[in-house]
Amino acid sequence: MLNDSVEKTSTAEIARIIKTLKSKKSAGFDSVSNFIVKKFPPSYIECLANCFNTWLNECHYPDDWKIAKIITLNKLKSGIPKCEQTRPISLLATHSKLFEKVLLLRIRHWAETDRLVPPEQSGFRPRGLLRTRVLSIYQEVKNNMAANIPTLALYVDYQQAYGRV
Fold first, then answer.
1. Residues 71, 9: one domain?
2. How many whole angstroms separate alpha carbon 30 and alpha carbon 64?
3. pLDDT tens readout for residues 80-137
4. What SUPFAM superfamilies does the record point to (predicted)?
5. Is the same domain home to 71 and 126?
6. Do residues 95 and 65 make contact, with C-beta atoms less than 8 angstroms apart?
7. Predicted TM-score of the model (pTM)
C-alpha cells in the first residue's frame, strides 16, 4: 500500500461522518465535543477536508490527537467505589475521531478490495455480528459430530481482562 496513493476525502464525506456522531457533550483534552462539531459551518468542514487530505498525502497523524483525557467511572449506582469498582475511559479529541473514521473507510476498502479479510471473519466488518460466528461454529460442530470427526475448540474468557492488564 505504500506505493498506492490514498483516496482524498471530501467535505461531503466528512459531513456524513459528522452526522453519524452521537450528540454527546463529553469532550477530550481540547474541550471540543461531538455536540459542538455537529454545529460546524460548511467553511470549517472544508478546512478540515484540506487538512485531512494533506495528512493523508503525507501519511501524518497530528501528535496532539494522540493525547487522551482519562476519566474514571463508578461501576456502582451510588457510594464511594473501591479501586476495582471503577473503570477508566479515554476521551480523544473529536477531530481525531473524524480523521480515524476517514482512515478506517480507506483501510476497509483496501482490505476488502485486496481480499485480505477472510469471508468467515465477522469483526472489522460492518454488520459482522457475533451471533453469525456463534451460529457458524455451532453448525461446524454439528456437521463434524454427524460425520464422527473430532472438533477442537478453544474458549477464552475476557470478562475481567481489562482490570488485570
1. yes
2. 9
3. 888 878 888 888 899 999 999 999 999 888 888 888 877 777 666 676 666 777 788 8
4. DNA/RNA polymerases (SSF56672)
5. no
6. yes
7. 0.70
